[in-house]
């Protein structure tokens, strides 16, 4: 009986430590960016849909993507993606909840490679 209680206590302690460790390891690497052609042409340019997934179990806010050289013939809603210099602010700075995604579309002759630059992680 004591062995079963000790095993249960050990399992619970391990889960607590793992959950605390996961929240501390969140970073911009947990922002997964994918994009595909939509099949639509905008002003003779192929349209791309970009999806940014927060794969972190914590909120990620004030997400900035590197977008030096980014161009589009199709206007992107500035509340979704706002270009400022070499960076783009995602979601108007609002937090992406854990395991959710936000998407936007743009049109250009080639696909642009967006990379996460920074975010503010909140694991409360």
TrEMBL record:
Q: Which UniProt keywords apply?
A: Signal
Span of the secretion signal? 1-23
Recorded hits in InterPro entries, A to Z, give: TPD1
Offer one Pfam family short name for this entry. Answer: TPD1_C
Q: Which branch of life, at top level? A: Eukaryota
PANTHER family according to UniProt: BETA-1,3-N-ACETYLGLUCOSAMINYLTRANSFERASE FAMILY PROTEIN, PROTEIN TAPETUM DETERMINANT 1-LIKE-RELATED
Protein name (record): Uncharacterized protein At1g05835-like
């Amino acid at each position: 009986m004591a062995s079963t209680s000790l095993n249960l206590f050990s399992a619970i302690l391990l889960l607590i430590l793992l959950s605390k460790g996961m929240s501390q390891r969140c970073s911009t690497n947990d922002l997964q960016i994918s994009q595909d052609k939509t099949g639509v042409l905008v002003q003779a340019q192929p349209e791309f849909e970009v999806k940014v997934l927060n794969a972190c179990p914590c909120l990620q806010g004030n997400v900035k993507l590197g977008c030096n050289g980014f161009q589009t013939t199709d206007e992107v809603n500035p509340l979704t993606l706002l270009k400022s210099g070499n960076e783009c602010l995602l979601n108007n700075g609002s937090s992406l909840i854990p395991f959710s995604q936000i998407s936007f579309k743009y049109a250009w002759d080639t696909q642009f490679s967006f990379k996460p630059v920074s975010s503010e992680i909140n694991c409360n």
